[in-house]
Design brief:
Length: about 350
């Protein structure tokens, strides 16, 4: 394993190669907005990572398919909150607070981590039992007087010849003696794909695919929207196939309960497009006891976040604390999370669908 330490000065407006490792490549560039970016590429596609802006994944495209949500943002912006640059494929939501703040909350939407100014970033080149890989690594130390103190170490790993990649987060409570709250969601904003079918290891029944009926403050409901929410709450099977005409403006949110797993506790979800390929997610349900689904088909934003693995639901700190969904991380304790994401071609999709049904 070799680690290349990065400097902000190495990023220029002209994209330049930085690391080549077998068939894997990493190149550096800077968006016109001033945001540094790394393009990790292999024979099937590429992901663009923002190493100093919360290490969010700005874009993902494989096998000629763009996996990223539609938004009004042509480039990322250096801003304090995610809503001011909401156009990425995935971001780290949390870590001390999460979700949309309720009436008594004072935290920003999705917490402090999405747009965190990272302290350090690097590129790791290595080889393991799965072959060659390139990994973007980084570190962010959060310290608040009379508050929490933690070290976050996110990473993104791409392997040779694969359209799947790992998005990971490791967080350590640096306090000498105090526990800290932990609320983490891997917020994956997949493209809205008209006519796609969602495959999950749970039935589309009201008790297992639960429709959120509470209307958050940022949503402006209308009678048609409220009727749609009531219909989905009674029979969520209407959400199995993603169609813009089915009333996803404003958004619809679902909570998945009791997802099936394999022998090691991993669950799999797919959004299978009419073309036969699919978007894919796999993660461990012990690490991520909650799964949220968020679908929006607006004029300016379109997203089918079919699987948002999380330690909590997105209703804000106070509501999640009352539900018992805020995890406590002891002094010196480390929590680790990994989500496998990506694209499946038609044959890979058939294989994974058979595994899920197995």
């Amino acid at each position: 394993m070799t680690i290349f330490h990065l400097s902000r000065a190495a990023f220029e407006e002209v994209e330049r190669p930085s690391v080549e490792h077998g068939t894997l490549k990493a190149s550096l560039f800077r968006y016109p907005t001033g945001i540094e970016a790394i393009r990790l590429a292999n024979a099937r596609g590429a992901i663009v990572i923002l190493p100093y802006l919360g290490q969010m994944i700005w874009q993902a495209a494989f096998d000629g398919v763009d996996l990223t949500m539609k938004s009004i943002f042509k480039a990322p912006r250096r801003v304090p909150t995610i809503g001011e640059t909401y156009g990425c494929f995935a971001f780290h939501s949390g870590l001390l607070r999460n979700g949309v703040p309720g009436p008594t909350d004072n935290h920003p939407p999705h917490g402090e981590m999405p747009c965190a100014a990272m302290d350090w970033a690097g590129i790791e080149a290595g080889h393991d039992e799965r072959g060659d890989y390139l990994r973007i690594v980084g570190a962010y130390e959060y310290a608040m007087g009379f508050g929490s103190h933690y070290l976050a170490r996110p990473s993104v790993t791409l392997r040779a010849g694969s359209a799947r990649f790992d998005m990971a987060m490791e967080v350590t409570n640096l306090s000498a003696g105090d526990p800290m709250d932990l609320m983490y969601m891997c917020h994956v904003n997949c493209a809205f794909s008209e006519g796609a079918e969602i495959l999950q290891q749970a039935p589309f029944t009201p008790d297992r695919t639960v429709t959120r009926t509470a209307v958050p403050a940022h949503v402006r409901p209308n009678p048609a929207y409220l009727a749609r929410v009531a219909a989905l709450a009674a029979d969520p099977a209407g959400s199995r196939v993603v169609r813009g005409a089915d009333g996803y403006d404003p958004e619809q949110v679902f909570y998945l309960r009791g997802l099936g797993t394999d022998a090691v506790g991993d669950t799999r979800l797919m959004m299978r497009r009419p073309e036969g390929d699919a978007f894919f997610a796999r993660y461990n349900t012990t690490d991520f006891p909650k799964t949220v689904r968020w679908i929006l088909a607006g004029h300016d934003q379109q997203v089918a976040a079919f699987a948002l693995p999380s330690t909590c639901e997105p209703e804000g700190y106070t509501a999640e604390k009352e539900k018992g969904n805020v995890r406590s991380l002891a002094a010196g304790e480390t929590a680790r999370f990994t989500v496998e994401l990506g694209h499946l071609n038609a044959e890979e999709c058939r294989q994974e669908a058979a595994r899920m049904a197995g």
